[in-house]
Model the fold of this input.
Amino acid sequence: MDSRHLCFVHMPSDRTTEVQEVRSISTGGLLGKISWYGPWRAYCFFPVEHTVWSKGCMQEVLTKIAQMMAARSR
Done:
């Protein structure tokens, strides 16, 4: 997925589910992570405290989560 503002970085993990860091393309700063949330049986986004999200950036995260959920169901 090409993004203008966000970079999704696959993180090595000993978990059976995938973990992706969400970083700013312009600064490289960590903005949050996408990881499995067992109680909801879904990938969820966990933002870093005090980050600000535009509608476009939130849509990019939602698209990435949808891709991760689709890959998990295969």
In short: The longest strand covers residues 30-37. Strands lie at 6-10, 20-24, 30-37, 42-47. The CA atoms of residues 20 and 41 lie 17 Å apart.
